[in-house]
Amino acid sequence: MKIGYLQRNADGVEERTIHSTYDTREEAHTAAVALADSFVGNDNIVQVERGYPLTEDTYLPRVSYDIPPTDKQRNPS
Question: CB 3.0–4.6 Å: which of 7, 31, 40, 48 could bond 36 by disulfide?
């Protein structure tokens, strides 16, 4: 799985950036929550995403995380 984030550039256009790749969903979830926590206070970041790779440079977002993540996003049931 890949995790990345959606950010607004200087022109206000949203860009998707890949941050890292993980072997398991659990590892990716833990990393996505930590990444979302690290972006608190950065108004350019729209959300953190977790998803499946399509190519080496793209992924299909399946789960999004708010900045900061909600309790439900931190501990999905």
Answer: 48
- Reported as a single tens digit per residue, the pLDDT across 11-41 is 999 999 999 999 999 999 999 999 999 999 9
**Backbone phi, then psi, for 76, in 5-degree steps?**
-65, 145
Confirm if 3 and 50 have CB atoms less than 8 A apart.
Answer: yes
pLDDT band at 76 (very low <50, low <70, confident <90, very high): confident
Q: What is the pTM of this model?
A: 0.91
Both tokens of 28, joined, read 């990716």
Query: Does residue 68 have a cis bond before it (omega within 30 degrees)?
Result: yes
> Are residues 17 and 42 in contact, defined by beta-carbon separation less than 8 angstroms?
no
